[in-house]
Amino acid sequence: MTNFFNLSKIEDPQLEDYYAKSMLELNDFFGIKWKHHTPVVFVVNDRDTINILHGEETGEWIVGWISGGNIVFVLNKDKFGEHSVHKYDDNDYYKLIKHELAHLFFKVITGNKTDPKWLWEGVSILVSGQAEKWGKPAGFKGFLDGKDVYIESGYALLLLTKKYGDDKLIQFLKAYKDFDGDVSVLFKETYGLDLNYGTFNGLLRS
Ligand SMILES: [Zn+2]
């Protein structure tokens, strides 16, 4: 049983730079000014500790997650080779940090929502720049049902925002805060589109 962990501050200008750039862009994208209790990032050094903090065995692809309202955990960049399946890359690491921070912004703007999974992950994949980096899927066929969310949902939102703008997505997320029904109803109200694969495959081919 392990319930105690060592914590100490890190002085790393590169990481601070990634953080500052992410926060600036995320505040801008989500249209807020996060000033108090701003996010903190805990750097974890090994898979064992990740599993304990995460509360379950994690796959080697998991290198970041969030906790509560302002905490991000990421695997130490120097431990990627040893404790993950990912090859370390500076730019990918920046996007990873931004992806996790974006989840915290999503919670702020939607009043603590973390679902549906395609929207929750899609927004982070979109705003972190991962959607553009990871590229276009062959077609949309699973993300709305929680399948292939990492492959499809970010790009789906990229196509949506390219056509209708970022502001429309923010309007949708803000409205989602006070909305308890089926998200497809709100989607239809906001975009005038049916929330189905046909809609996104149409955007992909237009
Ligand atoms: Zn995520």
TrEMBL record:
It comes from the Bacteria. This is Peptidase MA-like domain-containing protein. The lineage of its organism: Bacteria, Katanobacteria.
